[in-house]
Amino acid sequence: MSSAWTKSILHSEQPADRDSARLTTAMSSSDGAVVNPALGPDTDSPAGEGLELAQFAAGCFWSAELVYQRLPGVARTEVGYSQGHRHEPTYELVCGHGTGHAEVVRVHYDPEQCPYAKLLDVFWAKINPTLLNRQDDKYYGTQYRSGIYYYTAEQEKLARESLPEQQKKWEDKIVTEILPAKRFYPAEEYHQRYLEKGGQSAEKGCIDPIRCYG
After folding, report:
1. Partner of 135 at 20 to 30 A CA spacing, among 40, 146, 147, 177?
2. Cα-flanking dihedrals φ and ψ of residue 10, to 5°?
3. Element at 103 (helix H, strand E)
């Protein structure tokens, strides 16, 4: 399952069946309470000193990643799954078994070179925030919803302040969610830098049109 064909086959998340609760892996804490690690915060560290983390869901994560790869001040990007209830999800589970995850890009950025407000500008320019669970008419499902997932109070403040300003640009109501960043599960290796590996430029400042499937 390492091609665009796979993505087209598994594009739509199906309703969870009556046994969907079994998909959630539970763990026990020291006091005996049941803890689901997927619901906890993202506690990973940025890739280097002086960097900070940000998470965005903008439909298919392939093109979202390339947009941020090209952005000066972004040191690293990775695609994965977050905001779901299944511990250690796979692409197949996310697409077909109601795990609740969104396809996200996690951005390691230098706030001195690329302020969080710039990341937000790029995000809003990338998407149609009025579309629910999709960014086009071909691929749809809750994994393709749009979202801003914040790590700090300052990120939350900036994200929430940006939404009403963006709403002025749209007649329909914006449906983008703004939530705390939850645990990030890296996607399979073949998804990482997918469009770059397919021949599209990830050079900083590149403005070439992005072709969704390389």
Report:
1. 40
2. -105, 25
3. strand 102-109
Distance of CA 96 to the CA centre of its chain: 17
Catalytic annotation, residues: 60
H/E run at residue 77: strand 74-82
Backbone torsions φ then ψ of 82, nearest 5 degrees: -155, 170
197's tokens: 């590996």
Spatial separation of the C-alpha atoms in residues 101 and 98, rounded to whole Å: 8
Q: Would you state the structure tokens that stand for residue 155, as one six-digit string?
A: 């990120």
Query: pLDDT digits over 131-166, tens only?
Result: 999 998 888 999 999 999 999 999 999 999 999 999
Query: Is residue 61 a contact partner of residue 103, using CB atoms and an 8 Å limit?
Result: yes
Q: How far is the C-alpha of 154 from the C-alpha of 91, rounded, in Å? A: 32
What is the H or E stretch that residue 57 is in?
A: strand 52-58
